Amino acid sequence: MQNLCVLGATGSIGLNTLDVVRRHPQKYNVVSLSAHSRVDTMFDLCVEFSPETVVMVDEYSAEQLKLKLIADDYHQIEVLAGAQALIKLASSSKVDSVMAAIVGASGLLPTLAAIKADKRVLLANKESLVTSGQIFIDALAASKAELLPIDSEHNAIFQSLPLDMQTRVGHGKIADYGISKILLTGSGGPFRETPLADFANITPEQACAHPNWDMGRKISVDSATMMNKGLELIEAKWLFNLDVDDIQVVLHPQSTIHSMVQYVDGSVIAQMGNPDMRTPIAHALAYPQRIDSGVEPFDFFNCKNFEFCAADFKRYPNLKLAIDACRQGQAACTALNAANEISVAAFLNEEIKFTEISVVNEVVMKHFSHFNVTTIDEVVDLDSQARALAHDTIKTLDVT
Ligand code: NDP
Ligand code: MG
User: Taking the domains of the chain in order of start, what are their residue ranges?
Assistant: First the structure.
């Protein structure tokens, strides 16, 4: 029986995780769950999975959940409030594995706590590696923790690596394994063929309607701008110990191949299947075994053609920014991620245009790219400074 903590339980990854878990009650025991403020969803999860402890980061929501649980006679479930309580959940001795599925930089400290506490960490929160890659990889090396990628591309790359390299996340050297390139695939999002002249009028609803994947709103916008692929490129750099030039982004609109590893002898090993996050989640939950995820088997006789092409930076300026940030170093990556969280939220609130997301991101990234960040405190400090500058930059856009 594996004892599980699901951080970000009410989100898209969290609910998909619990869907896999519900198929295997004899294998997984849900010890703890966290959310920010979605009380009703969390209440339903409490009723179904009977966790020992639940964290609602928002204090009012924690109170609401507590009242609801007591009213329905679920006194035994402990409800905690605040971001600090996430660290307690992630490092609890009652937990073997932590699903890190909080969205954004708020996932940083609890994920790091899980690594330091020697957990098996199922990493969906890509922002952890983007904002503080070296710190995470060093913490991993200094611990007995195990890191398994959930992001579908990274999970695909992991599955396509030699077994020995799978045990050396963050440290294996691709050249030692005869690997020449990592091919990071991306669908290109909903606007792959939209005329560039129409980009300024794209609405949040259009941006969130991804053609292949059903995801949270922030990552859906990131997929539309391809910032998501940029963040994934930085994530891949850290997970697989790569240089930027070891990674090639390949547009593959059907999202059937989830990424590939190219070897020096000409072999290309790809992982493919229907685009459903339950596959990488089930892979990481059961690793090195396999379990049923609930995903339909892939039907080769009824599939669309496989297409591949290069990404155009005019269409996807955020992808270019992320590649530049990856070359420039940690401060640029941390600042870009923070700016993007603010600019995407502003776009979703209809405060800025779709095309202004990259404008805000570029201003903030350039401002901080020469800063030096080596400790987690410096990361947290730069993250908040970058958010403040992003807010200020948005105000300037409002005036013009
Ligand atoms: P969602 O927005 O669907 O869910 C986010 C979860 O985090 C919710 O449980 C939410 O709680 C919680 N949360 C939000 N803000 C905070 C906060 N400030 N502090 C603590 N918890 C918070 O996101 P996704 O599930 O789509 O994404 C989660 C992570 O996984 C992201 O890092 C994303 O990049 C990554 N990922 C997601 C994929 C997908 O298919 N969705 C694919 C690959 C990676 P509440 O519901 O109460 O707001
Ligand atoms: Mg992905």
Answer: 2-149, 167-274+302-324, 329-400
Strand, coil or helix: 33? strand
Q: Find the farthest-apart pair of alpha carbons in the chain and give their distance in angstroms, rounded.
A: 65
What SS3 state is found at 46? helix
Please give the pLDDT value at position 398. Answer: 65
Q: Which CATH fold would you assign to the domain 329-400? A: Rna Polymerase Sigma Factor; Chain: A (1.10.1740)
Does the pLDDT at position 379 exceed 60? yes
Please report the atom of ligand 1 found closest to the CA of residue 214. 40
Distance of alpha carbon 91 from alpha carbon 318, whole angstroms: 35
Q: Supply the residue whose CA is at minimum distance from atom 26 of ligand 1.
A: 216
Local confidence band at 400 (pLDDT 50, 70, 90 cut-offs): very low
Tell me which CATH code domain 2-149 carries.
Answer: 3.40.50.720
Query: What global pTM score does this model have?
Result: 0.95
Ligand nearest to the CA of 83: 1
Check if the beta carbon of residue 322 is closer than 8 Å to that of residue 227.
yes
Instruction: For residue range 124-149, list pLDDT tens digits in order.
Output: 999 999 999 999 999 999 999 999 99
Q: What is the pLDDT of residue 126?
A: 93
CB 228 within 8 A of CB 219: yes
- Cβ–ligand 1 contact at 105 (below 6 Å): no
- CB proximity list for 57: less than 8 A, separation 6 or greater: 34, 35, 36, 37, 81, 82, 83, 85, 86, 106
**CB under 8 Å to 198, separation ≥6 — which residues?**
none
Q: What percent of the chain has pLDDT over 90?
A: 95
CA-nearest residue for atom 21, ligand 1, is 36
Q: What is the mean pLDDT of the chain?
A: 96
Q: What is the pLDDT of residue 399?
A: 52
Spell out which residues have Cβ within 5 A of ligand 2, the ion.
151-153
Report the separation in Å between the CA atom of 375 and the middle of ligand 2, taken as the mean of its atom positions. Answer: 27
Q: Ligand 1: which of 5, 102, 128, 221 to mutate, judged by most atoms within 8 Å of the beta carbon?
A: 102
